[in-house]
Specification:
Blueprint lengths: L1 H28 L21 H5 L13 H4 L11 E10 L19 E8 L3 E21 L5 E23 L2 E22 L2 E2 L3 E19 L3 E16 L5 E2 L3 E10 L2 E10 L6 E9 L19 E12 L4 E13 L2 E13 L5 E14 L1
Protein backbone atom coordinates (compact mmCIF):
# COMPACT_ATOMS: atom_id res chain seq x y z
CA UNK A 1 0.00 0.00 0.00
CA UNK A 2 2.84 2.41 0.80
CA UNK A 3 4.45 1.76 -2.57
CA UNK A 4 1.19 2.59 -4.32
CA UNK A 5 0.74 5.83 -2.37
CA UNK A 6 4.29 6.84 -3.11
CA UNK A 7 3.86 6.35 -6.83
CA UNK A 8 0.70 8.37 -6.87
CA UNK A 9 2.43 11.19 -5.06
CA UNK A 10 5.29 11.14 -7.52
CA UNK A 11 3.01 11.22 -10.55
CA UNK A 12 0.96 14.00 -8.97
CA UNK A 13 4.11 16.02 -8.33
CA UNK A 14 5.19 15.43 -11.93
CA UNK A 15 1.90 16.85 -13.21
CA UNK A 16 2.15 19.84 -10.89
CA UNK A 17 5.77 20.56 -11.72
CA UNK A 18 5.05 20.26 -15.44
CA UNK A 19 2.24 22.76 -15.16
CA UNK A 20 4.41 25.18 -13.16
CA UNK A 21 7.12 24.91 -15.82
CA UNK A 22 4.56 25.80 -18.47
CA UNK A 23 3.53 28.87 -16.47
CA UNK A 24 7.17 29.94 -16.24
CA UNK A 25 7.50 29.49 -20.00
CA UNK A 26 4.33 31.51 -20.47
CA UNK A 27 5.65 34.32 -18.27
CA UNK A 28 8.74 34.47 -20.45
CA UNK A 29 6.82 34.57 -23.72
CA UNK A 30 3.61 36.48 -23.00
CA UNK A 31 5.48 39.77 -23.16
CA UNK A 32 6.25 39.22 -26.83
CA UNK A 33 4.41 41.86 -28.84
CA UNK A 34 2.32 40.95 -31.86
CA UNK A 35 3.46 42.30 -35.21
CA UNK A 36 1.24 43.54 -38.01
CA UNK A 37 -1.27 40.87 -38.94
CA UNK A 38 -4.15 40.77 -41.41
CA UNK A 39 -6.87 39.46 -39.08
CA UNK A 40 -8.06 40.69 -35.71
CA UNK A 41 -6.43 38.57 -33.03
CA UNK A 42 -9.60 37.63 -31.17
CA UNK A 43 -10.88 35.56 -34.10
CA UNK A 44 -8.12 32.97 -33.71
CA UNK A 45 -9.83 31.52 -30.62
CA UNK A 46 -12.94 30.45 -32.52
CA UNK A 47 -16.37 30.15 -30.88
CA UNK A 48 -18.25 28.02 -28.35
CA UNK A 49 -17.55 24.36 -29.18
CA UNK A 50 -20.09 21.71 -28.20
CA UNK A 51 -23.83 22.01 -27.69
CA UNK A 52 -23.51 20.80 -24.11
CA UNK A 53 -21.00 23.52 -23.21
CA UNK A 54 -22.93 26.16 -25.14
CA UNK A 55 -26.16 25.21 -23.39
CA UNK A 56 -24.36 25.86 -20.07
CA UNK A 57 -23.35 29.36 -21.17
CA UNK A 58 -19.76 28.38 -21.89
CA UNK A 59 -19.08 27.56 -18.22
CA UNK A 60 -17.20 24.36 -19.01
CA UNK A 61 -13.55 24.75 -17.97
CA UNK A 62 -14.12 22.85 -14.71
CA UNK A 63 -16.61 20.38 -16.27
CA UNK A 64 -14.92 19.35 -19.54
CA UNK A 65 -15.79 15.64 -19.35
CA UNK A 66 -16.53 14.93 -23.01
CA UNK A 67 -14.60 15.10 -26.29
CA UNK A 68 -14.76 18.92 -26.41
CA UNK A 69 -12.36 18.99 -23.46
CA UNK A 70 -9.70 19.34 -26.16
CA UNK A 71 -11.08 22.87 -26.59
CA UNK A 72 -12.22 23.80 -23.08
CA UNK A 73 -9.61 22.14 -20.88
CA UNK A 74 -7.45 19.21 -22.08
CA UNK A 75 -7.01 18.03 -18.48
CA UNK A 76 -10.69 17.07 -18.48
CA UNK A 77 -10.12 14.16 -20.86
CA UNK A 78 -8.86 12.08 -17.93
CA UNK A 79 -12.48 11.96 -16.69
CA UNK A 80 -13.68 9.98 -19.72
CA UNK A 81 -14.87 6.48 -18.93
CA UNK A 82 -14.82 5.27 -22.55
CA UNK A 83 -13.37 6.43 -25.85
CA UNK A 84 -15.50 9.03 -27.60
CA UNK A 85 -15.94 10.28 -31.16
CA UNK A 86 -17.80 13.58 -31.59
CA UNK A 87 -18.93 15.97 -34.32
CA UNK A 88 -20.33 19.47 -33.68
CA UNK A 89 -22.46 21.25 -36.26
CA UNK A 90 -24.04 24.72 -36.43
CA UNK A 91 -27.66 24.19 -37.46
CA UNK A 92 -28.47 27.87 -37.97
CA UNK A 93 -26.59 31.11 -37.42
CA UNK A 94 -27.73 34.67 -38.09
CA UNK A 95 -24.49 36.09 -36.74
CA UNK A 96 -24.31 39.79 -37.49
CA UNK A 97 -20.51 39.83 -37.26
CA UNK A 98 -19.45 40.50 -40.84
CA UNK A 99 -16.23 39.88 -42.67
CA UNK A 100 -15.27 43.57 -42.54
CA UNK A 101 -15.02 43.10 -38.74
CA UNK A 102 -12.14 40.75 -39.56
CA UNK A 103 -10.98 41.95 -42.97
CA UNK A 104 -12.02 44.86 -45.19
CA UNK A 105 -14.79 44.66 -46.42
CA UNK A 106 -16.97 41.57 -45.97
CA UNK A 107 -20.12 39.58 -45.30
CA UNK A 108 -21.96 37.38 -42.84
CA UNK A 109 -20.56 34.20 -41.42
CA UNK A 110 -21.78 31.06 -43.10
CA UNK A 111 -25.10 29.94 -41.66
CA UNK A 112 -24.34 26.23 -41.46
CA UNK A 113 -20.97 24.77 -40.62
CA UNK A 114 -19.21 21.74 -39.18
CA UNK A 115 -17.11 23.30 -36.42
CA UNK A 116 -15.48 20.39 -34.59
CA UNK A 117 -14.53 16.75 -35.03
CA UNK A 118 -12.70 14.84 -32.34
CA UNK A 119 -11.59 11.33 -31.42
CA UNK A 120 -10.60 11.12 -27.76
CA UNK A 121 -9.77 8.75 -24.94
CA UNK A 122 -8.86 9.05 -21.28
CA UNK A 123 -5.21 9.62 -22.23
CA UNK A 124 -5.64 12.00 -25.18
CA UNK A 125 -6.91 12.31 -28.71
CA UNK A 126 -7.02 14.18 -32.00
CA UNK A 127 -9.30 16.95 -33.20
CA UNK A 128 -9.97 19.29 -36.11
CA UNK A 129 -11.53 22.70 -35.59
CA UNK A 130 -12.15 25.37 -38.26
CA UNK A 131 -11.67 28.69 -36.50
CA UNK A 132 -12.93 30.83 -39.40
CA UNK A 133 -14.62 30.02 -42.70
CA UNK A 134 -15.71 33.18 -44.50
CA UNK A 135 -16.31 34.01 -48.14
CA UNK A 136 -17.59 37.07 -49.99
CA UNK A 137 -18.21 37.42 -53.72
CA UNK A 138 -18.76 40.50 -55.92
CA UNK A 139 -18.02 43.16 -53.31
CA UNK A 140 -18.69 46.42 -55.14
CA UNK A 141 -17.06 49.78 -54.39
CA UNK A 142 -17.19 53.10 -56.28
CA UNK A 143 -14.80 56.00 -55.63
CA UNK A 144 -14.61 59.48 -57.18
CA UNK A 145 -10.99 60.51 -57.64
CA UNK A 146 -9.64 64.07 -57.11
CA UNK A 147 -9.36 64.58 -60.89
CA UNK A 148 -13.05 63.81 -61.33
CA UNK A 149 -12.62 60.30 -62.68
CA UNK A 150 -14.42 57.36 -61.13
CA UNK A 151 -12.98 54.01 -60.10
CA UNK A 152 -15.22 50.97 -59.70
CA UNK A 153 -14.00 47.74 -58.20
CA UNK A 154 -15.47 44.25 -57.85
CA UNK A 155 -13.68 41.83 -55.56
CA UNK A 156 -13.98 38.28 -54.25
CA UNK A 157 -12.55 37.59 -50.79
CA UNK A 158 -12.02 34.43 -48.80
CA UNK A 159 -10.53 33.72 -45.38
CA UNK A 160 -10.16 30.27 -43.83
CA UNK A 161 -8.25 29.12 -40.77
CA UNK A 162 -8.15 25.55 -39.42
CA UNK A 163 -6.66 24.10 -36.25
CA UNK A 164 -5.44 20.50 -36.04
CA UNK A 165 -4.63 19.32 -32.54
CA UNK A 166 -3.07 16.49 -30.58
CA UNK A 167 -4.29 16.33 -26.97
CA UNK A 168 -2.51 14.50 -24.14
CA UNK A 169 -3.85 14.04 -20.60
CA UNK A 170 -2.63 12.42 -17.41
CA UNK A 171 -4.32 11.97 -14.05
CA UNK A 172 -3.02 11.00 -10.62
CA UNK A 173 -5.52 10.93 -7.80
CA UNK A 174 -7.40 14.22 -7.65
CA UNK A 175 -4.99 16.05 -9.98
CA UNK A 176 -5.20 16.02 -13.77
CA UNK A 177 -2.97 17.73 -16.34
CA UNK A 178 -3.49 18.12 -20.08
CA UNK A 179 -1.90 19.78 -23.07
CA UNK A 180 -2.95 20.61 -26.65
CA UNK A 181 -0.33 20.81 -29.38
CA UNK A 182 -1.81 22.69 -32.34
CA UNK A 183 -0.98 23.16 -36.00
CA UNK A 184 -2.70 26.11 -37.70
CA UNK A 185 -3.29 26.43 -41.43
CA UNK A 186 -4.97 29.43 -43.07
CA UNK A 187 -5.53 31.24 -46.34
CA UNK A 188 -6.34 34.85 -47.22
CA UNK A 189 -7.39 35.37 -50.81
CA UNK A 190 -8.50 38.49 -52.70
CA UNK A 191 -9.31 38.72 -56.41
CA UNK A 192 -10.15 42.16 -57.83
CA UNK A 193 -11.18 43.68 -61.14
CA UNK A 194 -11.20 47.45 -61.64
CA UNK A 195 -12.76 49.89 -64.08
CA UNK A 196 -11.61 53.53 -64.40
CA UNK A 197 -13.89 55.77 -66.48
CA UNK A 198 -15.33 52.77 -68.34
CA UNK A 199 -11.85 51.38 -69.11
CA UNK A 200 -11.09 47.96 -67.61
CA UNK A 201 -7.71 47.36 -66.00
CA UNK A 202 -5.88 44.05 -65.73
CA UNK A 203 -7.48 41.87 -62.99
CA UNK A 204 -5.39 41.28 -59.88
CA UNK A 205 -5.32 38.38 -57.44
CA UNK A 206 -3.50 37.86 -54.18
CA UNK A 207 -3.42 34.71 -52.05
CA UNK A 208 -1.51 34.56 -48.78
CA UNK A 209 -1.07 31.26 -46.94
CA UNK A 210 -0.38 31.09 -43.24
CA UNK A 211 1.11 28.30 -41.12
CA UNK A 212 1.42 28.26 -37.38
CA UNK A 213 1.92 26.25 -34.20
CA UNK A 214 0.66 26.65 -30.68
CA UNK A 215 -0.09 25.07 -27.34
CA UNK A 216 -2.82 25.07 -24.69
CA UNK A 217 -2.36 23.70 -21.16
CA UNK A 218 -4.92 22.77 -18.55
CA UNK A 219 -5.05 21.69 -14.94
CA UNK A 220 -7.98 20.23 -12.99
CA UNK A 221 -8.45 19.48 -9.32
CA UNK A 222 -11.15 16.81 -9.15
CA UNK A 223 -13.15 16.43 -5.95
CA UNK A 224 -16.17 14.39 -5.01
CA UNK A 225 -18.49 17.37 -5.38
CA UNK A 226 -16.26 20.27 -6.50
CA UNK A 227 -13.98 20.63 -9.53
CA UNK A 228 -11.51 23.47 -10.09
CA UNK A 229 -10.26 24.01 -13.63
CA UNK A 230 -7.48 26.20 -15.02
CA UNK A 231 -6.84 26.59 -18.74
CA UNK A 232 -4.06 28.65 -20.34
CA UNK A 233 -4.56 28.91 -24.10
CA UNK A 234 -2.45 30.28 -26.96
CA UNK A 235 0.88 29.65 -25.27
CA UNK A 236 3.53 30.74 -27.75
CA UNK A 237 1.04 30.54 -30.61
CA UNK A 238 2.78 31.90 -33.69
CA UNK A 239 1.61 32.17 -37.30
CA UNK A 240 3.78 32.86 -40.31
CA UNK A 241 2.00 34.58 -43.25
CA UNK A 242 3.54 34.73 -46.70
CA UNK A 243 2.65 38.39 -47.36
CA UNK A 244 2.43 39.71 -43.81
CA UNK A 245 4.62 39.93 -40.75
CA UNK A 246 4.81 36.96 -38.42
CA UNK A 247 2.20 37.02 -35.69
CA UNK A 248 2.37 36.01 -32.02
CA UNK A 249 -1.06 35.48 -30.52
CA UNK A 250 -1.83 36.80 -27.07
CA UNK A 251 -2.22 34.18 -24.35
CA UNK A 252 -5.32 34.09 -22.17
CA UNK A 253 -6.38 32.36 -18.99
CA UNK A 254 -9.58 30.61 -17.94
CA UNK A 255 -10.54 29.75 -14.37
CA UNK A 256 -13.60 27.64 -13.60
CA UNK A 257 -15.48 26.08 -10.70
CA UNK A 258 -18.06 23.31 -10.97
CA UNK A 259 -20.26 21.97 -8.18
CA UNK A 260 -21.75 18.49 -8.64
CA UNK A 261 -24.65 17.18 -6.62
CA UNK A 262 -27.15 14.45 -7.42
CA UNK A 263 -28.67 15.27 -10.77
CA UNK A 264 -27.37 18.86 -10.79
CA UNK A 265 -24.21 20.61 -11.99
CA UNK A 266 -23.55 24.32 -11.33
CA UNK A 267 -20.57 25.93 -13.06
CA UNK A 268 -18.92 29.33 -13.42
CA UNK A 269 -15.94 30.53 -15.48
CA UNK A 270 -13.84 33.68 -15.82
CA UNK A 271 -11.88 34.26 -19.03
CA UNK A 272 -9.28 37.03 -19.34
CA UNK A 273 -6.53 38.13 -21.69
CA UNK A 274 -3.19 38.44 -19.93
CA UNK A 275 -2.21 41.72 -21.61
CA UNK A 276 -5.59 43.30 -22.36
CA UNK A 277 -6.88 43.23 -18.79
CA UNK A 278 -10.06 45.10 -19.73
CA UNK A 279 -11.21 42.10 -21.82
CA UNK A 280 -12.98 39.83 -19.34
CA UNK A 281 -15.67 37.20 -19.97
CA UNK A 282 -17.94 35.76 -17.28
CA UNK A 283 -19.90 32.52 -17.78
CA UNK A 284 -22.53 30.84 -15.61
CA UNK A 285 -24.35 27.59 -16.35
CA UNK A 286 -26.28 24.69 -14.94
CA UNK A 287 -27.22 21.18 -16.01
CA UNK A 288 -30.12 19.21 -14.54
CA UNK A 289 -30.93 15.55 -14.99
CA UNK A 290 -34.57 15.46 -13.86
CA UNK A 291 -35.24 11.73 -14.20
CA UNK A 292 -32.10 10.30 -12.64
CA UNK A 293 -30.57 11.28 -9.33
CA UNK A 294 -27.93 8.58 -9.23
CA UNK A 295 -24.83 10.30 -10.65
CA UNK A 296 -22.96 13.47 -9.88
CA UNK A 297 -21.88 14.35 -13.42
CA UNK A 298 -24.71 13.22 -15.68
CA UNK A 299 -22.66 10.49 -17.35
CA UNK A 300 -22.53 7.82 -14.67
CA UNK A 301 -24.40 4.64 -13.79
CA UNK A 302 -28.08 4.06 -13.14
CA UNK A 303 -29.39 4.68 -16.65
CA UNK A 304 -33.20 4.57 -17.01
CA UNK A 305 -34.67 2.21 -19.60
CA UNK A 306 -35.67 5.07 -21.90
CA UNK A 307 -32.25 6.72 -21.65
CA UNK A 308 -31.04 9.91 -19.97
CA UNK A 309 -32.38 13.42 -20.47
CA UNK A 310 -30.49 16.60 -19.54
CA UNK A 311 -31.75 20.19 -19.32
CA UNK A 312 -29.30 23.10 -19.45
CA UNK A 313 -29.29 26.89 -19.14
CA UNK A 314 -26.61 29.55 -18.98
CA UNK A 315 -25.66 33.20 -19.33
CA UNK A 316 -22.49 35.12 -20.18
CA UNK A 317 -21.11 38.66 -20.26
CA UNK A 318 -18.18 39.74 -22.42
CA UNK A 319 -16.58 43.01 -21.39
CA UNK A 320 -14.18 44.51 -23.93
CA UNK A 321 -12.55 47.91 -24.23
CA UNK A 322 -14.73 48.96 -27.17
CA UNK A 323 -17.94 46.91 -26.76
CA UNK A 324 -19.94 44.90 -24.27
CA UNK A 325 -21.74 41.68 -25.12
CA UNK A 326 -24.14 39.59 -23.10
CA UNK A 327 -26.37 36.64 -23.82
CA UNK A 328 -28.17 33.59 -22.58
CA UNK A 329 -28.25 29.98 -23.65
CA UNK A 330 -30.42 26.89 -23.24
CA UNK A 331 -30.02 23.28 -24.26
CA UNK A 332 -31.19 19.72 -23.97
CA UNK A 333 -29.32 16.43 -24.17
CA UNK A 334 -30.21 12.78 -24.60
CA UNK A 335 -28.03 9.74 -23.89
CA UNK A 336 -28.86 6.12 -24.51
CA UNK A 337 -26.27 3.40 -24.78
CA UNK A 338 -23.25 4.65 -26.74
CA UNK A 339 -25.14 7.50 -28.44
CA UNK A 340 -25.18 11.04 -26.99
CA UNK A 341 -27.08 13.87 -28.72
CA UNK A 342 -27.02 17.47 -27.50
CA UNK A 343 -28.66 20.56 -28.96
CA UNK A 344 -28.33 24.15 -27.74
CA UNK A 345 -29.58 27.66 -28.46
CA UNK A 346 -27.67 30.93 -28.00
CA UNK A 347 -29.00 34.50 -28.06
CA UNK A 348 -26.39 37.27 -27.83
CA UNK A 349 -26.72 41.05 -27.78
CA UNK A 350 -23.81 43.21 -28.90
CA UNK A 351 -23.39 46.94 -28.34
CA UNK A 352 -22.19 48.53 -31.60
CA UNK A 353 -20.01 51.62 -31.99
CA UNK A 354 -23.07 53.78 -32.75
CA UNK A 355 -24.75 52.56 -29.53
CA UNK A 356 -27.17 50.42 -31.53
CA UNK A 357 -27.82 46.85 -30.45
CA UNK A 358 -26.94 43.94 -32.71
CA UNK A 359 -28.07 40.37 -32.08
CA UNK A 360 -26.68 36.93 -32.77
CA UNK A 361 -28.77 33.78 -32.69
CA UNK A 362 -27.25 30.33 -33.07
CA UNK A 363 -28.36 26.69 -32.85
CA UNK A 364 -25.74 24.01 -32.36
CA UNK A 365 -25.90 20.21 -32.52
CA UNK A 366 -23.40 17.73 -31.06
CA UNK A 367 -23.42 14.00 -31.69
CA UNK A 368 -21.01 11.57 -30.10
CA UNK A 369 -20.53 7.83 -29.87
CA UNK A 370 -18.82 6.11 -26.95
CA UNK A 371 -16.89 2.91 -27.65
Amino acid sequence: MQMKIGRIGQKGNFCLYSFLMVLVWLAATVSLSADEFPVKERYYRGQFIGARAMGMGGAFVAVANDATAAYWNPAGLSQLITNQMMAVYILDNNNEIKLYDILEPGQRLKRKQLIFMGLTSQKGGFYWKPLVNLKQEDVYNRVTNPDGSTTETWSDQEYTLNAYGLTLADRSGFLSFGVNIKYLSGKLGVAEKRKVNSAWEEPEASISNGKGVGMDCGLMILGDHLNIGLMVSNILNRIWWEDYSDMTLEADGNLGLALHTRGLTLAGDVHQKFKKRANVWYHLGLEIEPFNRGSKNGRGAGVPVFGRVFLRAGAFIKKRIDTNQSGYTAGVGYCRGPLIVDIAFLEEAKENDDNSLGRTRMYQLSMSIAF
